[in-house]
Hints:
Layout: E1 4-8, E2 18-19, E3 22-28, E4 34-39, E5 45-46, E6 49-51, H1 58-70, E7 72-83, E8 88-92, E9 97-99, E10 102-112, E11 120-126, H2 128-131, H3 138-150
Parallel strand pairs: 2-9, 3-10
Antiparallel strand pairs: 1-8, 3-6, 4-5, 4-11, 7-10, 8-9
Amino acid sequence: MGKRVDYYHDPAAPEANSLVVGSSAVVVDEEGRILLQRRSDSGNWALPGGTMDIGETFGQSAIREVKEETGFDVRIERIVGIYSDPGHVFAYEDGEVRQEFNICLACMITGGELAVSSESTDVRFFSFEEVSDLTMHASIRKRIDDYLRNGPPVLR
């Protein structure tokens, strides 16, 4: 997809011309650390996730994206939130300007092993205390805060 620019309540933002269903996942390990990836397009730390493909359910798309971007298999525990702020748009090099539409899910790891994809330069676990020092978009920080506000899923 190439480089993208995030506009967050910026009056200079271009007008959206696209709306795509996307997922993000708050994935925690047995030690209660959160899995984040450093995006290759922005350099920011972010939650794994991506867009839904035709022919799959939303849940399948979220599980696939986590696997592709981090190497882990996950089980969905709950919805963290639905984010559809028209003031948050992503401008891509090809002229697409996408309005945010993202459903964030809390997930637990069921298998796999840590792997870095072409969409990121690093993937690793952080304690929630360490997250405050990381460079990330305000929309990602909001999702993590919403996750913490509702409490982590019960480990089974």
